[in-house]
Amino acid sequence: MSAEAANPGAPLRKRGRARIDLRRLGRVALLGPVSRDRLPAAIGHVAEAHRAHYPDADLAVLHKAYVLAESSHRGQMRKSGEPYITHPLAVTLILAELGAETTTLTASLLHDTVEDTEVTLDQVRQEFGDEVCYLVDGVTKLEKVDYGAAAEPETFRKMLVATGNDVRVMSIKLADRLHNMRTLGVMRPEKQARIAKVTRDVLIPLAERLGVQALKTELEDLVFAILRPSEYESTHALVAAWEGTQDPLTDIADSVRATLRDAGISAEVLIRPRHFVSVHRVRMKRGEMRGTDFGRLLVLVGEDADCYAVLGELHTCFTPVISEFKDFIAAPKYNLYQSLHTAVVGPEGAVAEVLIRTHRMHKVAEAGVVALGNPYTQDGTNAVHQAEPADGERADPTRPGWLSRLLDWQESATDSDTFWTTLRADLAQDREITVFRSDGGTLGLPAGASCVDAAYAQYGDEAHGCIGARVNGRLATLSTVLNDGDTVQLLLAQDGSSGPSPEWLDHVRTPTARIAITAWLDAHPEGVQGLHGGAAAPRPPAQPTDEAADSRGRPAGGDPGVAVDRAGAPVRLAGCCTPVPPDGIVGFTVRGGAVTVHRDECPAVARMRALGRAAVGARWNDPGEWSDTADYRVTLVAESFGRPRLLADLTEAIAAADAAIVAATVEPPSEQRVRHTYTLQLPDAAGLPGLMRAMRDVPGVYDVSRAQQPAATG
User: Fold this and answer.
1) Which of 485, 493, 597, 618 could make an S-S bridge to 465, C-beta 3.0–4.6 Å?
2) In angstroms, rounded to a whole number, what is the distance separating the alpha carbons of residues 569 and 27?
3) Which of 48, 116, 130, 462 is catalytic?
4) What is the pLDDT of residue 39?
């Protein structure tokens, strides 16, 4: 059974015209050109489809290209038995139906001439100009690459480079593969499977990323039929059984039309059947299929504002399924796709998915970059490309962001296997998110990307010095996974001595970040010396004091300066929260009759109240009642990003505030974040706020707070 004869997408896809008869077309092609004032009948189908999108297109160049292609391929036959010219004609017709401009169609007609005939690139350039020559050369380079398993890495590296320089090269390649897949039935089963796997793993994801859904969905169905024949047959039978029943979407579509008509909104409401792979996915997800699962409603309007007007009417007049709402107009997908997605409950309780978009959005949704015309002219017409830049590179304004990123990192991936692994991983991502930068710009990242990915996407190699991030205004670790719509502010070290940690590789999803981190680690096997003070920064020595400290960290004989409602009871300040004036305080009796005084917000207070322990009233004495030996110990926790000399700068700030360090600990760094705990002796409690401000002003320190550690209740 040939793939063409059993095209699984045909029953579900509405087409403007029937698929052409290749054998009849081949006979017409063999007759050669007709008189100069008429197009050959063989290319009439292409001309008709092209004029539907470009009514004023000049067809003379297509006539000329057809004459060259037909004469060059004359005598060559395809394995399916048709004259070879039927292949470039069919590929060109596919692109014409998608709305490709004249230059692309001209190159498509000629795409095999340089590879398979005596025609040279110089001849193409002389007859059709630099633009067509550039595209034909790009496709020719792809055709020359072996698709064997051993050659796959370098194959798709070349493909990516050619695609990146001009996305129309890949458009022609995808149409070429679609026609070959349609006629794959003449090949041996093992070769069919090999070609289908390559199509599944690389070409279909590329079609998705280029937004060419019309090609992507048919390729998916053809691959599905070859690689999973039993599941394809069961899905085919399921769809066939559904086609003989009353479609519940029809009634819902009528209700939607009436609703929009009453609201004065001009809209076209269509029922859009799902293709086979989509039906299979829905069945795997939901188990039993509902009648409305075989298709979706498509509402087409004239202007962007009309999309939201339709949405408002639907959500007002029908019960919406809020979890199904997505706005890809305000935030387009990475492949240029724009649409509003929602779901509503129909009159009989059936749930229908609804897509709302303008006619322009629909064209781009179906044809992606193919629908954007010539990316090198301002009006999308067929104009000769302007002078090339000196380095031969071409800036493509329609190139999606993901493709630009892939082009960047493929240059860094000198090893083909590394390139292949990262390419496959990137293409396996079926969803992309958009996050907002602090400067108002946006970053497109794969779903599951972390702050590390965002750093390299925004700063490139400068991200080696990333020391932290704020996500939606809150400090976050670099391993934090970002969600669609998050705002991320990336914090970079200022001294240039920081570098990535090997642990970063556990959190990255983008090839750009992974290759950059790996390259840096390979170039710096010793790591960054002195970063964070080493793997675990040493504790600074305690500054000497004149008095020995007791078990609570207070000097023996020190006056706490606190009066409690228990006459004669010894008073201690709790070491867990180290209260100082003017903190709100409360006491609790401990073993031996002493009263331990805590800050009101200390976690130990809540614990003891929960245990039924009676609180003892406590208040600070007036300063005049304190003894000469009165002093205050406070425990502060400093959260910082690791950097060289951080410890020295913090201790210098503490000393400048006339505070003495009684004890200090620095925890081992985790993801370049370091936690410092200092127990300090203050000459005056009133100086605590100024001390904390001074510590926060130390570069790299992002927060200083009072310690609130659990303490024994006595």
Assistant:
1) 493
2) 112
3) 116
4) 52
Long-range contacts made by residues 660-666, C-beta under 8 angstroms, separation at least 24? 660/543, 660/545, 661/540, 661/542, 661/543, 662/542, 662/543, 662/545, 662/549, 662/553, 662/633, 663/542, 663/553, 664/539, 664/540, 664/542, 665/539, 666/533, 666/536, 666/537, 666/538, 666/539
Among residues 21, 56, 115, 137, the one annotated as catalytic is: 115
Q: How many CB atoms lie within 10 A of CB 5?
A: 9
**Total residue length of the chain:** 714
Question: Distance (Å, rounded) from C-alpha 350 to C-alpha 282?
Answer: 16
Count of alpha carbons within 13 Å of 206, Cβ hemisphere only?
28
Residue-wise pLDDT for 306-327, tens only, equals: 999 999 999 999 999 988 898 8
Q: Whole-angstrom Cα distance, residue 339 to residue 306?
A: 12
Question: Judging by DSSP bridges, how do beta strands 466-471 and 487-492 pair with one another?
Answer: antiparallel
Strand partners, 490: 469
205-209, 365-369, 416-420, 484-488, range with the lowest pLDDT: 416-420
3-state secondary structure of 587: strand
DSSP letter assigned to residue 566? S
Q: What is the DSSP string of 275-344?
A: PHHHHHHHHHHHSSPPGGGGEEEEEEESSHHHHHHHHHHHHHHSEE-GGG-EETTTS--TTS---EEEEE
Supply the angle between the helices 152-165 and 416-427 in degrees, to the nearest 10: 70
pLDDT, the chain, mean = 76
| SS3 per residue for 509-527 | CCHHHHHHHHHHHHHCCCC
Burial of residue 387, with CB atoms counted within 10 A of its CB: 0-12 exposed, 13-18 middle, 19 or more buried: exposed
Listed range (149-158, 602-611, 658-667) with the worst mean pLDDT: 149-158
CB atoms within 10 A of CB 662: 20
Query: Across the strands, what pairs with 618?
Result: 564
pLDDT tens-digit map of 34-75: 444 455 566 888 888 899 988 988 888 998 999 899 888 888
| Cα-based distances in Å from 114 to 110, 160, 343, 347, 601 | 8, 21, 50, 60, 80
CA distance 139 to 179: 15
CA-nearest of 103, 98, 122 to 64 is: 103
Q: Residue 710, CB half-sphere, CA atoms under 13 Å: how many? A: 4
Radius of gyration of the chain measured on its C-alpha atoms:
35
Give yes or no for a contact between 181 and 219, defined as CB atoms under 8 angstroms apart. yes
Which tokens hold the place of 63?
A: 């006539």
The candidate with the shortest Cα–Cα distance to 297, out of 263, 347, 234, 251, is 251
Distance, first Cα to last Cα, the chain: 84
Clarify whether 583 is annotated catalytic: no
CA 398 to chain centre: 18
Q: Is the pLDDT of residue 551 over 60?
A: no
Decide if 667 is catalytic: no
Torsion-angle region of 553 (φ positive above 0: left; ψ -120 to 50: alpha; else: beta): left
Q: Find the range with the poorest average confidence among 505-509, 516-520, 530-534.
A: 530-534
Dihedral in degrees, nearest 10, Cα atoms 447, 448, 451, 453: -70
User: Alpha helix (H) ranges present in 564-661?
Assistant: 603-610, 646-656
Rounded to whole angstroms, the Cα distance separating 204 from 220 reads 7
Angle CA 425–430–435, to nearest 5: 95
Name residues whose C-beta falls within 8 Å of residue 120's C-beta, 6 or more positions apart in sequence: 114
Give the largest CA-CA distance in the chain. 121
Lowest-pLDDT range of 134-148, 442-456, 530-544? 530-544
